[in-house]
Specification:
mainly alpha; 22 helices; 69% helix; 0% strand; Helicase_Sen1_N; Helicase Sen1 N-terminal domain-containing protein
């Protein structure tokens, strides 16, 4: 029996090499074509024969042999015919038969999942977008349908108490791995909803943990979901992964960040898609951004968000200037994080001057009479000034002078501030003055002694 299996494996390997050699010849021929109609027709016929032979070969592989695991060299070019997948409803077509088999294998094998997505990434980077976009759109739709159906099936079995830990372990791990490794899937509304239910079920039955040596970008995407439980799980899992160190580690969730930042700016455009997209809400998006910043090293925050999205600081300041919405408190928190995480780098990376930002904050203090908002802005003054200390260009002293004048003179003489806030202003002023004495070297505000 073993010798027979060995012989079959050897025969498969020979056929695999023959197909790969034929494909290599087709690639060479395509590069050398003279453009004549006859040669073009002949080339297309040979290519179609290769596709037909490759389909038949992969479809007839033994069940225990996974296509993406052992025959990815053949499967990569064989993705090309998938461009016409939805053009025919006939289930017996080779492309549909092969996809059905691949779906079954992707449900239980993380290596297949990696190769499958790696191939799509190769297509998106190696070929011109105008040429490959229709194919990638089809593959994206197929993947979303596949993952959504798989999650629905798992959730249904879990609801009926039919999910067996031992027998279904590979399925649970595979779908968890795929969504957390490829967070673009969570842009699909059906997947996002089903995955949240799945995640909560898994968390309740087996507390999830992740290995710290592997990055799972989908964990950070969970921070932006509507469901509080999903965000809590995402926050806990992100703690296992450690902080993201640079912009490249943020790259997998850049599409999500781009959408969320433009959503807060009210400039997110609607794209027509075959499947429903996730609908964002302002509160979870703000919470997600604040949580994400907490998991970023300063260089990742600087390069991956502040530099990449110059609009981000504008969005934050615009919402600090508008106390009519719930966005105000979140924007203030984000501004504090910008001061604290980036320090002086904030001023080196933005076109906003300290004076413009100071005027924005002080202007908002006079615009509103809400104590809570006054306190939130007063609490920004100290981190604001500390972010200027390292510049050593006189800006720190200049802004400190303005803040002290505001806190000790303008607040105390304005009816816009309550007695409690006037007391708070004096406390903040004293804190700023003390900071000057504790600096190295000390830099007390002697020029403000008359205040």
């Amino acid at each position: 029996m073993s010798s027979k299996l060995t012989m079959e494996a050897a025969q498969r390997e020979m056929r695999k090499r023959a197909l790969m050699n034929r494909w290599g010849e087709l690639e060479d021929e395509e590069n050398d074509q003279d453009g004549s109609p006859d040669s073009d027709v002949e080339f297309r016929c040979r290519k179609e024969r290769w596709f037909s032979d490759a389909f038949n070969f992969l479809i007839k592989l033994p069940e225990e042999v996974h296509i993406w695991c052992g025959y990815e060299e053949i499967m990569w070019p064989l993705l090309e015919p998938f461009c016409s997948y939805f053009e025919c409803n006939e289930e017996g077509l080779s492309v549909k038969v092969l996809w059905k088999r691949i779906c079954a294998e992707l449900q239980r094998c993380t290596q297949c999942i990696v190769q499958h997505h790696k191939a799509q990434k190769m297509y998106s980077t190696e070929f011109e977008q105008d040429t490959v976009k229709p194919l990638l759109t089809v593959l994206k739709t197929l993947d979303e349908e596949r993952v959504a159906d798989h999650l629905k099936d798992i959730n249904l079995r879990a609801e009926k108490k039919e999910l067996n830990t031992e027998n279904d372990y590979a399925e649970v791990v595979s779908v968890l791995f795929e969504v957390l490794m490829y967070p673009d899937l969570l842009d699909d509304q059906v997947i996002a909803n089903a995955f949240v239910l799945f995640l909560i079920e898994v968390e309740n039955s087996h507390e999830l943990t992740l290995a710290g040596y592997q990055q799972y970008p989908g964990v950070y995407a969970l921070l932006f979901l509507r469901k509080t439980e999903a965000r809590a799980i995402g926050f806990r899992l992100a703690g296992f992964l450690g902080k993201l160190r640079n912009a490249s580690e943020l790259e997998p969730i850049q599409p999500l960040l781009n959408k969320c930042i433009h959503f807060l700016d009210n400039s997110l455009s609607d794209n027509i898609t075959l499947r429903p997209r996730i609908q964002y809400e302002r509160e979870p998006v703000w919470l997600g951004i604040k949580s994400l910043i907490g998991f970023l090293e300063s260089s990742a925050f600087e390069e991956g968000i502040v530099e990449r999205y110059p609009i981000f600081l504008s969005v934050v300041l615009n919402h600090v200037s508008d106390d009519s919405t719930k966005d105000f408190a979140h924007a203030v928190d984000c501004l504090r994080l910008l001061f604290e995480v980036l320090g002086c780098k904030l001023w080196l990376k933005t076109t906003f001057s300290p004076s413009v930002m100071r005027n924005t904050l002080l202007g908002q203090c006079f615009h509103t009479r809400i104590e809570k908002h006054h306190k939130a802005i007063f609490d920004l003054f100290q981190p604001f000034l500390q972010s200027l200390e390292a510049l050593e260009d006189g800006e720190f002293e200049r802004q400190r002078r303005h803040f002290l004048y505001f806190l000790l003179h303008q607040v105390s003489h304005s009816s816009n501030f309550s007695p409690l806030m006037k007391k708070k202003a004096r406390q903040v002023a004293i804190s700023i003055i003390r900071r000057g004495y504790r600096m190295d070297p000390p830099c007390p505000p002697f020029e403000c002694a008359h205040m």
